[in-house]
Design a protein that fits this description.
It is a single chain. With 155 residues, this protein is α+β, with helices and mostly antiparallel strands. It is 40% helix and 27% strand. The chain has helices at 16-25, 48-62, 85-103, 117-134, and strands spanning 6-15, 40-45, 66-75, 78-80, 138-143, 146-152. α3 (85-103) packs across α4 (117-134). The longest helix has 19 residues, at 85-103. The protein is globular, with a radius of gyration of 16 Å. It starts with 5 loop residues before the first strand and ends with a strand.
Length: 155
């Protein structure tokens, strides 16, 4: 857990159309079943070019013009996956979810390539459970593409 919150500059890759809407109405949380860090808004910390690459890839698929928005984000009330403090809590939450799936006679979701079905469920559940104990609102992690920041739905 971050003892003294820091402020970072982060970038959100999107379409020009979405960027205009975000500037008018604010960010909308992503709640895809494959969102690795759970429900929230995804940013690239200190990496405007990586956010641009992300936006360009999405633009190629959607036919829209790419755009990047920058934001100052205060890293507080954050489950920081760079800090091993969270390892045991996540393990316990994962085991609890697996037990629940077993009791309900359901198959647990599995991650597939870049679709993080299981990770999303575990992290959303962790944020929900740990919010009351640690006042967690968001998650922070390094991903293989670079440093990503996710702002949870609670803000």
């Amino acid at each position: 857990m971050l003892l003294s919150p820091q402020t970072v500059i982060a970038y959100h890759g999107t379409s020009a159309e979405q960027a205009a809407e975000i500037l008018q109405l604010g960010f909308q949380h992503s709640n895809n079943s494959w969102d690795w860090l759970g429900t929230g808004i995804y940013f690239w910390q200190d990496a405007p070019l990586r956010a641009w690459e992300w936006a360009e890839e999405a633009a190629r698929q959607s036919g829209r013009a790419p755009a990047v928005l920058g934001a100052e984000i205060r890293l507080s009330d954050c489950m920081d996956f760079l800090d091993i403090t969270w390892t045991q809590a996540l393990r316990e939450i994962y085991e609890r979810l697996q037990k629940d799936y077993y009791i309900d006679n359901k198959d647990s979701p599995v991650n597939q390539d870049l679709a993080h079905y299981l990770d999303k469920i575990v992290i959303d559940y962790a944020v929900e459970r740990l919010h009351s104990i640690y006042n967690i609102h968001s998650t922070y992690a390094v991903v293989r593409w670079g440093l990503a920041w996710e702002v949870s739905r609670r803000r």
